[in-house]
Amino acid sequence: MLLYNVTFGVDKQIEQEWIVWIKETYIPAMMETGLFVDYKMYKVLTHDDETSVSYSIQCFATNIENVLNYLNEFAPKITEAHRLRFKDQHVAFNTLLDEV
Q1: I need a surface site. Which of 16, 33, 58, 67 has the fewest CB within 10 A?
Q2: Domain extents for the chain?
């Protein structure tokens, strides 16, 4: 099983709006691709910043081809929608992990 993780740092002033959008738009768009079998969303508790809060969205795929397909075919549109919606109010980075 592969884990595609996206970690977001979000301005605290938009946190609740961001959570709603992520749960109603971003995650459904990722899952509707059919390339991931499950997902989880976590708040990062070790993040200590007065102005921002971090969240991890973890999407599980059965093979690397599904993740690469997502990254090449779907991620640009989904990422751009997020960037435009929350411009200058977040940072993000992704990580790909393989279960051992």
Answers
A1: 16
A2: 12-53+65-90
Q: How far apart are CA 60 and CA 45, in angstroms?
A: 22
The answer to whether the CB of 94 falls within 8 A of the CB of 57 is no
Which pLDDT does position 25 carry in this prediction? Answer: 97
User: For the segment 58-88, what is each residue's pLDDT rounded down to a tens digit?
Assistant: 999 999 999 999 999 999 999 999 999 999 8
HEC per residue, 24-82: HHHHHHHHCCCCCCEEEEEECCCCCCCCEEEEEEEEEECCHHHHHHHHHHHHHHHHHHH
pTM listed for this prediction: 0.92
Decide if 70 contacts 57 (C-beta within 8 A).
no
- What span, in angstroms and rounded, lies between the C-alpha atoms of 32 and 11? 27
List strands edge to edge, sheet with 52-61. 38-43, 52-61, 2-11, 90-98
